[in-house]
Amino acid sequence: MTPHPATAPAADSGPTPEPAAEPAPATDPAAAVRRRARAALETARLRTLALTDCLDDDGLTAQHSPLMSPLVWDLAHIGNQEEIWLVRAAGGRPPLRPDLDPLYDAFQHPRAERPALPLLSPDQARAYAAEVRDQSLNVLAEAPLTSTAATTATPTGPPTDPLPGPLLDRGFVFGMLAQHEQQHDETMLATHQLRQGPPVLEAPAPPPAPADAALLPPEVLVPGGPFEMGTSTDPWALDNERPAHRVDLPAFRLDTTPVSNRAYLDFVQDGGYADPRWWSPQGWAHRQRERLEAPLFWLRDGDRWLRRRFGRTEPLPADQPVVHVCWYEADAYARWAGRRLPTEAEWEKAARHDPATGRALRHPWGDQDPDPAHANLGQRHLEPAPVGSYPDGAAPCGARQLLGDVWEWTSTGFTGYPGFTAFPYREYSEVFFGGDYKVLRGGSFGTDPVACRSTFRNWDLPVRRQIFAGFRTAADGPPERS
Ligand code: AVJ
Ligand code: FE
């Protein structure tokens, strides 16, 4: 068996796919934006195709779980969103397939209903996505990519008609669509994990833990004080990450690494799932109703534990971060451990604030783009790396693996920052504000670097376990000496 990367080469796993040189001077900032946008779109498409070309038509049209769409729905939805935003709104071009809009509108059809729709076949969906991509690359080549550029484009597409100027500013809408496709690529990876049947994805194992992993202090102290949360300047940041604002936090302590399978197994073996003291009232009701006894995909085999991962059953690796736990399980574990989940603001301060300069960093390690030494991102490995990995990706506070490996549940519900403005459409974030959704931070091994930074916000319902989510715990810090 020849191991080959399961999915497309990630932008951070070697030379970035370099598109044909633009006939523009190297000093033209628009040319640099175009190159970056084109590379991000191409990386996303290679991954989309890798995740769909590995199954036959039955595997693409089947619904592998009522929680998920058939993969062929994601494929055509990726193309349809790109048509709406890049071809119609940014390019001002006439619609290609306006008849598809209602079929692939996530708000018109819940996931469970999607298999019954008259969807495009796998071949039709591939051809449609490719046709849209041809046009959007033409739009990218021609679009004026500055905030002041006037344009004669007349956006025709639903759901809104935002001004093309802000949409094109520093390539925002191209970055938004690359992130959209990568988000669906992670969703499709979760569908693969839920799918029954022989394995079709392969990837090399992550590197073993570094020598100092066993010597790390269990927690780090983040001193009290203000920091900058969110961003007003990152060109591809999505609306819910904006605007930047000052948040003052008391000192707190945070686990140096995500909670491991070994630590979580202690909770399981201590009877944690049978003791309502550790659970919130809703969490306990949910545990009872669903008879939860361990993370999703764990299997008990006599007195040892196995896990199922992309079609293989293997011993549970004790030193990897726990994954596939819902918010209720994370919250119960934290209470059992005498701790709590971090708030979203605490997580971001740990992942961004540089006390040496007072500046907010784009990533825990600094402003450089992620590379394979920083974090386990981009589907290079199809599992988390051992806790304590990636010393080069450590934050100024000393915490490791804040980006990559597993999404981390926080205690905070999803809402808009002060001064939030929906852009370019309310359905990306705003319609989810104030619901039952909990914020997740940091990204997983399945998240692409383009959709991962210290300001990036993800959210899901507290019962969800099919996402690649784990957590770390926190505690109030000692008061500052004065
Ligand atoms: C940000 C992951 C919660 O999948 O529901 C994809 C991303 N939005 N298409 C989701 C998204 C529209 C979104 N999450
Ligand atoms: Fe979508």
From TrEMBL:
Known cofactor(s): Fe(2+)
Q: Which reaction does it catalyse?
A: gamma-L-glutamyl-L-cysteine + hercynine + O2 = gamma-L-glutamyl-hercynylcysteine S-oxide + H2O
The protein's enzyme class: oxidoreductase
- Binding positions (Fe cation): 77, 180, 184
**What does the record give as EC number?**
1.14.99.50
List the keywords (alphabetical): Iron, Metal-binding, Monooxygenase, Oxidoreductase
Domain named Sulfatase-modifying factor enzyme-like is located at 217-474
Pathway field: Amino-acid biosynthesis; ergothioneine biosynthesis
**One Pfam entry name:** DinB_2
- Biased amino acid composition, Low complexity: 23-32
Domain DinB-like residues, every copy: 40-188
Any idea which positions bind gamma-L-glutamyl-L-cysteine? 111-114, 460, 464
Q: What family classification does the UniProt entry report for this protein?
A: Belongs to the EgtB family.
Q: What is this protein called?
A: Hercynine oxygenase
